[in-house]
Amino acid sequence: MTPLPRFHRLPAERQEAILAVARAHFAEHGPASASYNKIIEAAGFSKTAAYQYFDGREDLLAAVLDDVLDRLLGVLGPWTPARDEADFWARLGAGSHALVAHLRAHPDDLALADAAVGRARGEVWLGWFGAVVQDGQRLGFIRTDVDPALLAGATAAVMRAADEWALTALRAARPADAAAPESEQVWSLLRGLWSGAADGGAGRAH
Asked: What is the pTM of this model?
C-alpha cells in the first residue's frame, strides 16, 4: 500500500508538507482515530483531489508511517563494520543518543514510531539491528546459538524500550547521570542478551 504515482510527481516540498500535516494528526489522535477528512482539509485540498494522490485513509497512513521509519533510519545512518569492540560500543551509543535527541525534538515521530516499526517495512528496521548483531558476532562478543532474526528482533526491542525510557527521564527532568548512568543500564541489558548470561555464557562467540 503506497501513494498513487501522482503524489510522487508533486514537488518534494509539497509532499513533505502533506505528510507533515498528516503525521501531526495521526500522532495527536492516533492511527486508528485521526479523521481523514480533517487531514486533507488541513493539507489544503478537497476529498476529490485527495483521491488523486491516495486510495484512502489507510493509504495515507501507510505513507506517513513509511516516512517516519525513513526519518528514524536516516538519523541512525547505515551500520558499518566496527574496528574493534570499543569502536562498536561507541558507534552504538552515538546512534542511540542521536535517535533519542531526534525523538525528543520530533514528538510526532515518537508517537508513531511503534506503528512505523510494526509495519511490513519494519523488516528494514530489523535489518539495521541485524547488521549490528552480525558485526558483534564477527568481533567475537555476541552469541551465535540464537537465530539471527530472533536476536536482531530482541535487540531492536531493547533499544526501542531504552529510547522510550530515556525520553521519559528527560521529560521528568531527571538527571542523566543519576546513581547509575542510564546508558550503562541499557548496555548492561544488551551485554546480558548478547553474551548468553542466562546460561552462563553458553553460545557466546569465540
From this structure: 0.81
